[in-house]
Amino acid sequence: MGYKTKEWRNSMRVTVDYNYMMAKSLGEKGISDSQLRAVKDEAEKAFGYVAANRGRDDLYMGWTELPYNQTEIVDDIIKTAKAVRKKFKYFVVLGIGGSALGPIMAFNALKHLHYNELSQKLRGGPKFYVEDNVDPVRMAALLDVIEPEKTCFNVISKSGATSETMTQYLIISDILKNKGVDLTENLIFTTDASRGNLIKIDKSLGGKIKKYVLPDGVGGRFSELCPVGLLPAAVLGIDIKGLLAGAAYMDGLCSKPSISKNPALALAALHYIAMQQGKNIHVMMPYSDNLKLVADWYCQLWAESLGKAQDYSGNTVNAGTTPVKSLGVTDQHSQVQLYIEGPYDKVITFISVDHYAVKMPIPHGCEDIPDVGFLGGHTMQELIQAENKATAYALMRAGRMNYTIYMPEINAFTLGQLMYLLEMQTAYAGALLNINTFNQPGVENGKKATFALLGKKGYEEKKAEIDSAPEIDGKYIV
Ligand code: PA5
Question: What's the CATH architecture for 64-240?
Fold first, then answer.
């Protein structure tokens, strides 16, 4: 593997504790050992399906091999990133969905929480923005804080046909042209190897734009560990070899077909049983501001992968559970009341950190006010960990299913492990549900409706269909 020592890697192992999912903790509200045993064969079959189809482009399972098959690309990315860091003051990702959530998540997880506000010397690289919307106010706000001619724009789109990304591209390329900037200098495309409109655009500009490939068998939401995520991360100075080594390490931990030995399979099986028991909501609650956007990334991974109308046998199943983003401890003061006393319809995933990058001692003070004085002499790390533990415990006492993913610390290696764990968990869950985890017909339908509404050629029929929808009845508008 060539990534630090074996001892170091083992000391950075991400682990999963699912005691609070089980009947031993929750009584009849929990999952019994016999219920877990009852899905053993199905879990083994799901494992077998994923193992047998690893790397298959036609099934969109190329993501499983990303930790292993990118040596040359990684070297090229590191070289390009070095040049970008030297030349540009700003780096902006234009993309949406799977083409944006990974880059923002890794940025938030591994860089200073106020990165853009640091001095150039402390940042060491360009200011970083990800535009994953078409809110005109947001685009105008971006243009207020960057200098386009000093900006490298990484346009990320597999299809090059996503209205949001291509709108951003049209606006930015127009601005660059009007400023007399050579587009090929300030743009990098990450896109499909040969198809897609970004390839056509590049050709029209003489084929000189630096391009990275979003591999054939890798869907948007599984793409963070390919150039989609690796280039922005490298530009930020993130150790991308560490991300991939972490993913490979987790792959090794998920190599057994047994629930008791494979953390991703265990979590998938637990969710599968919980779904059968009517747990329709899945809360992702990291206890770390750095991991806050892991919840955003994960919500897309889980929702787009598992939210499917039909299974492989053609049955209408309307599968999936609704992912909810939450942040510890902040949302203890907004959502946790519902989680503890509301309907028994949720599974809560905590992500806990053993060692935060700083501990932040709490000074002594207010000793004559017991409500405050007891805090002095502790650290903020102790406080956040105590609140995390207390919330998991309180949920367990209230009969609410929850489990914890422990990260020894937040670094590239542990983040790589976390991503791969959650991707594998999602793949196993989809296999257990017997659905196509890797397509997104619902998203594609939304894209087509937008094309129709904005008058794209070839979508006249869709437009007519939308126009012929029943009139919205005025009486229901207040
Ligand atoms: O996960 C997915 O496949 C989607 O969220 C896509 O990433 C998103 O729709 C953007 O598509 P594209 O990369 O083609 O612009």
Answer: 3-Layer(aba) Sandwich (3.40)
